[in-house]
Structures are given as C-alpha cells and as structure tokens.
Amino acid sequence: DGGITQSPKYLFRKEGQNVTLSCEQNLNHDAMYWYRQDPGQGLRLIYYSQIVNDFQKGDIAEGYSVSREKKESFPLTVTSAQKNPTAFYLCASSSLQGSYEQYFGPGTRLTVT
Amino acid sequence: KNEVEQSPQNLTAQEGEFITINCSYSVGISALHWLQQHPGGGIVSLFMLSSGKKKHGRLIATINIQEKHSSLHITASHPRDSAVYICAAKVYYGGSQGNLIFGKGTKLSVKP
Prior knowledge:
The structure holds two protein chains of two kinds.
Chain A: E1 4-7, E2 10-13, E3 19-25, E4 31-37, E5 44-51, E6 54-57, E7 64-66, E8 76-78, E9 87-94, E10 102-104, E11 108-112
Parallel strand pairs in A: 2-11
Antiparallel strand pairs in A: 1-3, 3-8, 4-5, 4-9, 5-6, 7-8, 9-10, 9-11
Chain B: E1 4-7, E2 10-14, E3 19-25, E4 31-37, E5 43-49, E6 52-56, E7 59-64, E8 69-74, E9 83-93, E10 96-102, E11 106-111
Parallel strand pairs in B: 2-11
Antiparallel strand pairs in B: 1-3, 3-8, 4-5, 4-9, 6-7, 7-8, 9-10, 9-11
C-alpha cells in the first residue's frame, strides 16, 4: 500500500541527546514536510523540502536539522539545542502537481526528560 | 490574532445530532483542507476545497471565499466521529506551493 511511515511511534530520550525521527514515503511525492504539534496549538511547520538535496526552514526550525538524500526519505534530527523538544511530530508529503494535497504520516511522540 | 481560527474549540454532541464546525481565515489562500485526527494522532485528509461545497458520506464541507469562511458539517453524528477536526489554509510560503497554516482544532465528542 502507498503511504507515509514514521518510526518509531513513541520515542524517549534524555536531555542533551540528539535524536533522529524517520519519515519514509512511497507515494512518489516530490515535497515532504515536518510539523510539530503541541497541546492546544495548531501544527507548525519545521522544515520542508521540494526536491532531493534541498530544503527550507519553516516557522520553527531552530534546534532542528533535516536531510533529503533520497526522494523517499526526509529524516528530522531534534538537536540538544531545541529548548522544548517534547512534542508530537508529523511528517507529510505532497505532489507538486495538481492539487498539492498533503498526506500525513502516523506521527512520532517524542518525550525528552 | 491567528491567521486560521476555528470554533468551537470543544464540542459535545448526542448521537444523531447535526454538527457544524467553523473555520475563518485572514490570509489569501489557494485552498482549504479539513483534516481529522484520531486519539492515536494520525491525521487523515477529509476534504480539500477552493470553492463551493463537497460531500462525502455524512460529511459536508463548504467554503465562502469572499467571506473567508469554511464550515464542516456532520449529519447523523455517531460516536466513531469523535476526533479532533482541523482546518488548514493552503498558502504560498516562501515561494513554495502547498504549505499549510493550521487552526488549533475542534475536539468533537459524540455520546451514544
């Protein structure tokens, strides 16, 4: 089945450690996105990429890094510089033709203590 | 002021009731998404519309571009409709088409 996978579903880390969240899609979409969701707030864009080896910062990129070495994959690294890393992270992808409708992954809940 | 506002924030209904969730936006958009998020967290796209009205089963979405307002209606609500419903405006962001600005969501609980 085509879709977006994120792993793991739950992730626990100690403060000061970097952690990488996985996002893979087999929809042949050019664009991929990372969002962060906090209680009582709307999703906020962290980074997005429209093409391999290129990506742009979103609204809250500080403390995060990404790479796009393959079309199918867009991993997000939460670095120790991110002040409040505990959150729910959602990955999405879309075609850059037609409707540009975004399709979302199941999310990763990161807890940093 | 948020660029995308939803109301109400929380909604409790009895099974069978007709439900309306509202979304107002202040930015120029190319389309508006309605999304559904279940307790597990995954998000499913319900509708994307840029004008008029769309219907899928018991769900109806409308948009009024002039008034910058959209509504999501659920007819004959059922407990399995309990979820968070999110509207998201599709805007041009830094030259990129397709980026979304999200409302904070409406938490719907349908009681049997």
